[in-house]
């Protein structure tokens, strides 16, 4: 099992504060018959009403605390796309999100090139404030 991102528990708490029920952590997803698997940081569900089915999400948490934000974006994009592709085949009802700290969103995700990739690849974002463990923006 891979190591948790430094903000894993922060995002888990933020989701719970926002009314989500965390269903799984470090969810292992088998992606082929030859043993290839990946781990999804969090899956969560939010019930809409007693009569309707809940909304379900998968969340990849990234801290962007390494030296090169651009390299980390490159790695996060690849992981996000692989996660979304794998889940599309086996759990198509899950919507995949990339969770990033507010500071990273303000400094990196507002750059024209990064914004272009977010639009091009339809990356859904959860922007959270690490100090208060709260979600400040959902970008669908």
Description:
It is a single chain. The longest helix is centred in the middle third of the chain and has 22 residues, at 69-90. The mean pLDDT is 87. This protein has a 6-stranded mixed β-sheet with strand order 1-2-3-4-5-6, with helices on both faces. Helix content is 34%, strand content 34%. It is α/β, with parallel strands linked by helices. The radius of gyration is 15 Å and the shape is globular.
Topology:
Layout: H1 8-17, E1 21-30, E2 37-46, E3 55-61, H2 69-90, E4 94-101, H3 102-107, H4 112-120, E5 124-129, E6 134-139
Parallel strand pairs: 3-4, 4-5
Antiparallel strand pairs: 1-2, 2-3, 5-6
Task: Describe what is shown at a glance.
The protein is of the alpha/beta class and about 140 residues long.
The major pleated sheet works out as: 6 strands, mixed
Given the helix and strand composition, which structural class is it? alpha/beta
Number of strands: 6
* Head-to-tail CA distance between termini: 29 Å
Which band does the percent of strand residues land in? 25-35%
Shape: globular
Q: If you compute it from the alpha carbons, what radius of gyration comes out, rounded to the nearest whole angstrom?
A: 15 Å
Helical stretch tally: 4
- Poorly predicted sequence stretches spanning 5 or more consecutive residues: none
Strands of the widest sheet, in order across it, are 1-2-3-4-5-6
Can you write the helix and strand succession as a string? HEEEHEHHEE
* Mean pLDDT rating: 87
Instruction: Estimate percent helicity.
Output: 25-40%
